[in-house]
Write a structure and sequence with these properties.
The chain is α+β, with helices and mostly antiparallel strands. The chain contains 9 helices and 7 strands. It has 2 domains: 101 residues, Transferase(Phosphotransferase), domain 1 (Orthogonal Bundle); 165 residues, Orthogonal Bundle (Transferase(Phosphotransferase), domain 1). Helix 3 packs antiparallel against helix 6, helix 3 runs antiparallel to helix 9 and helix 6 packs antiparallel against helix 8.
Length: 298
């Protein structure tokens, strides 16, 4: 049986408040990216006269009623997660062959782009980087304090979006059923971002002997890796040639390098940030701090 955070259990009490947006209202579609849940487009809503993003589940074959209801339940949970640093969900397009979530459009793309497109962003002030980390912590802390708690479970820089003033908007949380169906529609192939996801995945997720029910400590590990990436502007485990190499290295206790070559001496409160980071990515989930304590220390 799926767990509550996966969108199909203990959600019967939700009221039917999720707006349904007709497909014909979405015009001028432009491809943006492809992820574990499907394909993302930029579009115009013809009535609202505004730009939106649509996350589409590609349906090569019909989806059963139960699966479709699970998708709608997940989307409804996302719609209820309203907070400054969480992407706003406007509604769903629920057509037989076109099933998508409609969200606000983020003009500055993802944190991944901000950090690693150094020709576009040659210098990033420490104040901006620390603000980004603080806003991510606030957003995830909000999700964890929902009833029931909502786990992101796929936190990475590609899923941290940025608005016109470079404020954080966390996206793609709670989309487990969307990912499962999207992957199953791809002829059994692994999701295209598998390597990127493994970078942020805690060791207990791929070590069967330590498997446990997913909890908030998964997101904390991912956040610690993101901290390192934001402060270093480097890709974690960048020398690894494949996801399996990353997994074996992490199981042996390897983590990103916190030396001066990666984390320069001029980082404000450098030692405190390194301490928070290393606490967050410790192998024992029970020893990782909560987002509330992390937020307070930031």
């Amino acid at each position: 049986m799926e767990q509550p955070h996966q969108g199909c259990v203990n959600l019967c009490s939700l009221t039917s408040t999720l707006p349904v947006i007709p497909y014909q209202k979405l015009t001028d579609l432009h491809y943006l990216s492809k992820g574990g849940f499907g394909t993302v487009f930029k579009a115009q809503h013809s009535d609202w006269r505004t730009t939106v993003a649509i996350k589409c589940l590609k349906l090569d074959s019909p989806v059963g009623e139960r699966e479709r209801n699970c998708l709608l339940k997940e989307a409804e949970v996302l719609h209820k997660a309203r907070f400054n640093y969480i992407i706003q969900i406007f509604g769903v397009c629920n057509e037989p062959e076109f099933f998508c979530i409609v969200t606000e459009y983020m003009s500055n793309g993802s944190l991944d782009q901000l950090l690693h497109e150094k020709m576009l962003y040659p210098v990033l002030a420490w104040s901006l980087r620390l603000r980004v980390l603080y806003e991510i912590a606030l957003g995830v802390n909000f999700l964890h304090n929902m009833t029931p708690p909502l786990l992101h479970h796929d936190l990475k820089t590609q899923n941290i979006l940025l608005d016109g003033e470079l404020h954080v908007k966390i996206a793609d949380f709670g989309l487990s059923k969307w990912r499962q169906l999207s992957i199953s529609k791809c002829s059994g192939s692994k999701p295209p971002e598998m390597g990127g996801t493994v970078i942020y995945m805690p060791p207990e997720e791929y070590e069967p002997s330590k498997s446990r029910r997913a909890d908030v400590k998964h997101d904390m590990y991912s956040y610690a890796i993101i901290m390192w990436e934001v402060l270093s502007r480097r890709i974690p485990f960048e020398d690894a040639t494949n996801p399996m190499q990353i997994m074996f290295s992490v199981l042996r206790g390897t983590r990103p390098d916190t030396g001066l070559d990666c984390l320069p001496v001029d980082i404000p409160s450098r030692e405190t940030l390194i301490y928070l980071m290393t606490c967050g990515w410790t192998a024992n989930p029970d020893e990782r701090p909560s987002f509330l304590s992390k937020r307070l220390e930031l």
